[in-house]
Amino acid sequence: MTLDLSLTRDLLTALLPELMLTGWALVLLVVVAWRHRTGGDLRVAGGIALAAFATTAAVVWWLWWNSAAAQGYAPMIAVDDFRFISDWLFLGTGALTVLLSMRYLEREALLAPEYYVLLLFSVLGMMLMGGGSDLMVVFLGLELMSVSVYVLAGINRKSPKAAEAALKYFLLGAFASAFLLYGIALVYGATGTTNLALIGAQVTSLHLEHGTLLLIGLALLLVGFAFKVAAVPFHMWAPDVYDGAPTPVTGFMATAVKAAAFAALFRVLGQAFATTVAWHQIVSALAVATMVGGNLVALAQRSLKRMLAYSSIAHAGYVLVAVAAGNASGSAAFLFYLVAYTLTTLAAFALLAVKGRGGESDVLIDDLSGLATERPWLAFALAVCMLSLLGFPGTAGFMGKWYILVAAAQSAQWWLAALLVLTSVVSAGYYLPVIMVMYMRPAPSAAAHADVRLGRLAGAAVTLAVVGLLFFGIRPNRLLDLSAAGAESLRTPTAAAVAPPGN
Amino acid sequence: MTTTIFWAFAAIAVGSALLCVTRRSPIASALWLVLTLFALAALFVILDAQFIAVLQVLVYAGAIMVLFLFVIMLLNLGRAGPSDRKGALAWAVAGALGAGLLVPLAGLARAAPPAAIQLPEGTMAALQQQQGLVGAVARPLFETYLVPFEITSLLLLAAIVGAVVLAKRKL
Predict the structure, then answer these.
(1) Tens digit of pLDDT per residue, chain A (503 long)?
(2) Total Cβ atoms within 10 A of residue A71
(3) Which chain B residues contact residue A76 at CB under 8 A?
């Protein structure tokens, strides 16, 4: 199915997933305007959100199945495999987050079904970030996602810590958006367009690879994205915000928000700046700082949530290695790792949410003592997550790291490859104690884990994630092929199909 | 001549923006912000974007800032409370970091958009003659940039929902 995006009908077809999700969000908004008092209303809203994600995923699949593609260059929204795969990732993460949140919201008495409306809006923003073929769409998607997540972080209005997290995230996020916007303005000044493919064409035809305007714009763009993925040295906000936000929201922020920022970064660098070599060094430097900084500070954490926050910073470093590799296998490894990391981290935060009850008291790693004897399945699931984050063979985390390593070696980035292995070894210093404490220490008292219950829906979500982790750890080929196809679809459309901008 | 006017309004914009963030009274800050927005409107006029300049004054300097002032006055903020400004050392560090950011940006003074993408002299004037001041803004807004325009409306909707969720006394 070839779509001519200058025709209204074809443009609407290309935008069908986004339109579908918008429609559901508006319906849900009207429903919760009347029904927002009881736990039952909350469950209804959650059910509608799940239906929204499922039908939107079906529409994305329909476009994908018909191998939809844009004719010529795509003015606002890209129609390629990369968009479809990243859409699925965001929608899946959103749906899992709904499953995890249902019980949590009732337990913490957060009777605000608008939670799900904002969740839908933020996933919509992510889809626009992953699919936008124009810097303006990417920026608006990022803002839509960010605004919704700022509020989600502070949805627990009774908690001063959540308020602090939301405000910190909002102020620093607005600051980072300003950097991004300034970068976009300078890139526009240098090339006369905000369309990614056209920027790429202008850079080659006008020989702008070393132009001051373009390079400063690119640097500011990188600052904006590095903030959203929490790469060192733009990570300062992450631990406090992750710590203060409600745990399911933290899981959502550490996975979907990060994945969306990475997807947008990857598309922008791959399509607009493919021939501008300057960013390879910057991204490499960011990757080094992020891997070293994230892992070393994580070692010192006693609180499980803060440990996971720093661990997510460290993982951003590994993904940056895949971006810096800049070759075909790096691109395939990039998407594969995002999927593996998302499944693992979301499951880990789900398990943490169960343990951290009673007004969100801090869960220390030592609090998990004896979990294995009391709740063997929970302990097993958490152990699998920790091993996958560590990169233990047999889990998806291992395969992801392995592919990144291969990609870095292929592009002769030996330093990055060596550092990735070394910092992974360091990370054993904080992942393994969690397993050790669960399995080798006795529970402090008989009732220590009595109130730890996952619930049916969250249990299903965690089971799905853990089974997925083990499955992709043993049979990664299908997912890797998909990732490779998705990454490849970013490379093809430029050069030949692009006409120079009219005005 | 145009350059002189540009630098004058640019200086006013930057100066009043600095005053806006350094004043302790929120009313004074808001009023300095109004001046910044006026100076920006003048810069838009220099760029041949008269319609945008008018909107800037009507919407930003007018409507939105009046709303700001209303809210500040309704909140009845006292002058009490400790200053959040730090000592001389913090100022020095912040100043050094800011200067560090300015150094690469100084490179922009020498950079110019490539000649190939610059519009020939008088294109804007001809366009406005042909389509009118409003049409020159409206056509791209509702044709080329329709998709971003609609996304903006969703962004505002999400912001409204978020503000209500956070601020309403009892949901």
Answers:
(1) 888 888 889 999 999 999 999 999 999 999 998 887 888 889 999 999 999 999 999 999 999 999 888 887 788 999 989 999 999 999 999 999 999 998 888 888 888 899 999 999 999 999 999 999 999 999 999 999 999 999 999 998 888 889 999 999 999 999 999 999 999 999 999 998 999 999 998 898 888 888 888 999 999 999 999 999 999 889 989 999 999 999 999 999 999 999 999 999 999 999 899 888 889 999 999 999 999 999 999 998 888 999 999 999 999 999 999 999 888 888 899 999 999 999 999 999 998 888 765 545 678 888 888 888 888 899 999 999 999 999 999 999 999 999 999 999 998 889 999 999 999 999 999 999 999 999 988 887 777 777 777 888 888 899 999 999 999 998 998 888 888 888 888 875 544 444 444 44
(2) 14
(3) 147-148
Nearest-10 crossing angle of helices A114-131, A135-153:
150
Average pLDDT over residues B26-40: 92
Tokens representing A412 are 């002769």
> Across the interface, do A121 and B145 touch by the CB < 8 Å criterion?
no
Query: Measured at the alpha carbon of residue A140, what is the angle toward residues B31 and B103, in degrees to the nearest 5?
Result: 65
Helices and strands counted in chain A (H then E)? 21, 2
Residues in chain A closer than 8 A to B114 (CB atoms): 190, 206, 208, 211
Q: How far apart are CA A408 and CA A159, in angstroms?
A: 44
Q: Which of B22, B71, B65 is nearest to B40 (CA)?
A: B65
Tell me if B147 and A114 make a contact (CB, 8 A cut-off): no
When computed from its CA atoms, the radius of gyration of chain A, rounded to whole angstroms, is: 22
The pLDDT of residue A496 is 42
- Asked if B162 reaches chain A (Cβ–Cβ under 8 Å), the answer is yes
Whole-angstrom Cα distance, residue A379 to residue A383?
Answer: 6
- The shortest C-alpha distance from B4 to chain A (Å) reads 22
The domain spans of chain A are 2-498
Distance CA(A149)–CA(A94), nearest Å, equals 12
DSSP, res A327: S
Nearest CA in chain B to A502: B117
| Token duo for residue A93 | 């993460």
A208 and B144 within 8 Å at the Cβ level: the answer is no
**Of the candidates B67, B68, B48, B64, which has an alpha carbon nearest to the alpha carbon of residue B56?**
B64
Token pair for residue B15?
């100066």
Beta-bridged to residue B31, according to DSSP, are none
Identity of the residue in A77, A208, A213 whose CB atom sits nearest the CB atom of B147: A77
Q: Does B111 touch chain A (CB under 8 A)?
A: yes
Residues in A closer than 8 angstroms to B148, CB to CB, are 76, 134, 136-137, 140
**CA–CA dist A19, A198 (Å, integer):** 26
Beta bridge partners of A195: A134
How far away is chain B from the Cα of A145, in angstroms, using its nearest Cα? 9
Query: Is the separation of the CB atoms in A474 and A67 below 8 Å?
Result: no
Q: Is A75 helix (H, G, I), strand (E, B) or coil?
A: coil
The answer to whether A90 and A55 have CB atoms below 8 angstroms apart is no
Count Cβ–Cβ pairs < 8 Å, chain A vs chain B: 93
Does the beta carbon of B122 lie under 8 angstroms from any beta carbon of chain A? no
Chain B residues closer than 8 Å to A190 by CB:
111, 113-114
Helix, strand, coil shares of chain A, percent, nearest 5, are 75, 0, 20
